[in-house]
Amino acid sequence: MTIVVKVGGAAGNSVSGVLADLADRRDWVLVHGGSEEVDRLGAALGRPAEYFTSPSGVVSRRSDAAHLEVVVLALAGQVQTRIVAELGRLGVRAVGLSGVDDRLLGATRREGARAVVNGRTVRLTDDLSGAVTSVRAGLLRMLLDAGISPVVGPPAVTGAGEVVNVDADRVAAQVAVALGATDLLLLTNVPGLLRSVDDPSSRIARVPKTDVATLVPLAQGRMKKKVLAARDALAGGVVRVVIGSSRGDAPVARALAGDGTVIE
Ligand code: ADP
């Protein structure tokens, strides 16, 4: 039995709390984001982050060549290296992999992503982002069987060998499906999917798998990707998805105990 845990990288997440909780277990693959570090490094390099909103309201990071460089430096460089170092300090043998390593995450490039700019829909022809279409689960299993915990993050690679940015929540869903994971935990900086974004007490506790589509309109901005990831994971055979908090004590154990938005 394997679980896939995704920890967010936006401000307000507690990555260290998640790692401390994972250190006692050996049944997991960790997927990470790192948007705060991408933004920080981009600003430091004079390439401040840009986001765009699709016509359906999904917010994505602008990933032209200059911004993709920052994504790779920040995620595969900084964030992943720090996570693997911290796990090592906790006594966990871990290996960090981007989707490019052994072509772990195969993707197709999103040709001409659509963005709403000043009320008009335009096509972004220079965007180097994509959608994950394949996961080399064998590599992850090999590591798990050897007692080594995989730590996975963007970017991914296309069949033509292009490096593309991909959304880490969607990566986590695809990894969970490919591994036949029982649970996918999407741990973030809020206690779950909220009926009203500004009210942490408005968490939706439990949703049957068949109703997951009804959650899409509730989620705004980047939360939409978590709901879409949950939908993909459940459609692919994952038994339970929990959108929960990365903060506080034992976030993994709490999410497994149902603290968060449980979709099953
Ligand atoms: P992470 O880096 O942890 O993946 P994101 O910033 O991508 O985090 O997504 C989490 C954010 O989504 C929350 O901090 C919140 O501002 C936003 N959000 C939008 N709609 C909702 C909603 N209905 N419920 C909870 N959070 C929401």
Give a written overview of the molecule.
The protein is α/β, with parallel strands linked by helices and 264 residues long. Helices cover 31% and strands 26% of the residues. The model has no long low-confidence stretch (mean pLDDT 96). The strands form four sheets. Strands 5-10-2-1-13-15-16-14 form an eight-stranded mixed β-sheet, sandwiched between helices. The two termini are 17 Å apart. It has a single domain, classed as Carbamate kinase (3-Layer(aba) Sandwich). Adenosine-5'-diphosphate (ADP) is lined by residues 8-10, 13, 33, 35, 188-190, 193-194, 197, 218-223.
In total, how many domains does the architecture comprise?
1
What order do the helices and strands follow? EHEHEEHEEEEEHEEEHEEHEHE
**Assigned CATH class:** Alpha Beta
Radius of gyration: 17 Å
Please identify, by name, the CATH architecture. Answer: 3-Layer(aba) Sandwich
Secondary structure class reads: alpha/beta
Assembly state (oligomeric) = single chain
Number of separate strands? 16
Sheet with the most strands, sense and barrel status = 8 strands, mixed
Low-confidence stretches: none
Strand order of the largest sheet: 5-10-2-1-13-15-16-14
What global shape is seen?
globular
CATH superfamily: Acetylglutamate kinase-like
Ligands, deduplicated: adenosine-5'-diphosphate
- The mean pLDDT is 96
How much of the sequence is in beta strands? Answer: 25-35%
CATH topology tier name? Carbamate kinase
The number of distinct helices, counting runs of at least 4 residues, comes to 7
N-C termini distance: 17 Å
Helix content: 25-40%
